[in-house]
UniProtKB/TrEMBL annotation:
Spans annotated as Disordered: 148-187, 410-451
Bias-annotated ranges (Basic and acidic residues): 178-187
Residue ranges with Low complexity bias: 166-177
Lineage of the species this protein comes from: Bacteria, Bacillati, Actinomycetota, Actinomycetes, Pseudonocardiales
SMART domains hit by this protein: HNHc (SM00507)
Protein name in UniProt: DUF222 domain-containing protein
Alphabetized Gene3D superfamilies for the sequence: 1.10.30.50
Any one GO MF annotation of this record: nucleic acid binding
Length: 451
């Protein structure tokens, strides 16, 4: 037995403390997999002591957990989750990860093929190995939204196929668009309520449609950024809500006296949407914007009527081939290229979208690193700071950013690629006319002891 595992924590070095944390977490994950294996066998045998009417009631009593938690563990133990079982038994994901994945897949549409089901599980398990359960849950929610769209709206659906005509509207009897949808497109629902208080303050509230909300957000974000600190000990004293209030005041002031718009990273508000021509031609398909919202192709075309559109030349593997030129700091074109290539912060497990990131020189400018796409990576503020003040390093391999952890976290220092921004896997058989296909039979989980 290692001395590290027997010594009291106060006798360990800083490095050994981290090593014990990682080891004990892995052991805890493996132990949970062993417990689920036991629950599965208990449920299969029906081996309940006299006086208990259900396995869940028995587990809640002897494990001192709630009945809801007991039922959740039974669902995890008896579900069809071979990839989750494998990762959990190897100690690579936690009990919370397993719970999120099991809950999501239990509600998966019945029309999914076994291949769809496996791809979805693999997507979430891969992300779980590098991200916390909250990020995995958001990815699962994103996938659910993608699945829950009307079958005619899912890429690959064999339904309607309209030409690229912004004025084309389906017939009144078409199932793909109702009268209420056409009315919403012509006159979106927006509300704004305001009043003057006795103290002379202007109070307001309301809500707007998605397209207007996206524009407002794009205007607020750059103007609400914290002011640079004059010294390390004097950060911006304003709260986030105060900064957004000041940003709104600036927008109103600009609108009152000039047609100029606020700048975001040096240019007017820009939203990046990656879409192929085939999808843009069809009103029956959907696209995912950089904020992970799902838009119809028709809705996207409405946005593009008033937007600045930048075409990008993409290679067969999706890498940006021609967009942007080198400079001391990243140009606007390079920022758009990074948004397309990186899709957001590149740190493993981070799901911050492009608007929350800044370009980072992989080889620092002061050390001779050029400002071109092959030497830039998108990082959010938190992970940009981590990169400068820890042992993490960045490399670019096959047009994908990989992070190399410090040896204290991984002695082998295996490069990690972020999968939090990967698009939802396209279902193979999304059509209401297809009969539901049977799910694969639950496979016995791998023995946790073998890990």
């Amino acid at each position: 037995m290692s001395t590290t595992t027997t010594l009291p924590a106060w006798q360990l070095s800083d490095r050994d403390l981290t090593s014990r944390l990682l080891t004990t977490q892995r052991q805890q994950n493996v132990a949970y997999a062993a417990q689920l294996e036991t629950i599965r066998e208990l449920e299969a045998r029906g081996a309940l002591p006299e006086g208990y009417t259900s396995t869940s009631a028995y587990l809640a009593t002897i494990l001192h957990v709630t009945l809801r938690e007991a039922r959740a563990r039974i669902a995890q133990a008896t579900g069809t989750l071979p990839l989750t079982w494998k990762a959990l038994s190897a100690g690579e994901i936690t009990a919370q990860h397993a719970a999120v994945i099991a809950e999501f897949l239990a509600d998966a549409p019945r029309w999914l093929t076994p291949e769809d089901y496996t791809v979805a599980e693999d997507t979430l398990v891969t992300l779980a190995a590098q991200a916390n359960p909250s990020v995995v849950r958001r990815a699962a929610t994103r996938l659910k939204i993608y699945w829950d769209n009307d079958p005619a709206d899912v890429p690959g659906s064999p339904d309607l196929d309209h030409g690229l005509d912004p004025d084309s509207v389906p017939d009144a009897g078409s199932d793909s668009d109702s009268g209420s949808r056409r009315e919403e497109a012509a006159r979106p629902w927006r509300e704004f309520r305001w009043q003057w208080t006795q103290a002379g303050r202007f109070r307001f509230s309301g809500n707007v449609d998605h397209e207007t909300g996206t524009l407002i957000e794009q205007l607020l974000v750059p103007l609400a950024a914290p002011d640079p600190a004059t010294t390390p000990d004097t950060p911006d004293p304003r709260t986030p809500s105060e900064r957004h209030g000041d940003a709104l005041a600036a927008i109103v002031d600009l609108a009152a006296r000039t047609p100029d718009l606020p700048a975001k990273a040096g240019e007017r508000a820009v939203a990046t949407v990656t879409v192929d021509l085939e999808t843009l031609r069809s009103t029956a398909k959907t696209v995912v914007a950089e904020d992970e919202s799902v838009l119809s192709a028709a809705g996207l075309r409405r946005i593009l009527c008033d937007a600045k559109v930048y075409p990008a030349v993409l290679g067969t593997e999706g890498q940006v081939l021609d967009l942007g030129r080198s400079a001391r700091t990243a140009t606007n074109a390079q920022r758009r290229a990074l948004a397309i290539r990186d899709r957001g912060c590149t740190f493993p497990g981070c799901d911050r979208s492009p608007k929350w990131t800044t370009p980072h020189h992989i080889v620092h400018w002061a050390h001779g690193g050029p400002t071109d796409l092959n030497n830039l990576a998108s990082c959010c503020e938190r992970h940009h700071r981590l990169l400068h003040h820890s042992g993490w390093k960045i490399v670019l391999r096959d047009q994908a950013v990989h992070w190399i952890p410090p040896s204290i976290l991984d002695p082998e220092q295996k490069p990690l690629r972020n999968t939090a921004h990967n698009p939802p896997p396209a279902p193979l058989g999304h059509s209401p006319r297809q009969a539901a296909r049977p799910r694969p039979a639950p496979a016995p989980p791998p023995s946790a002891a073998a890990s």
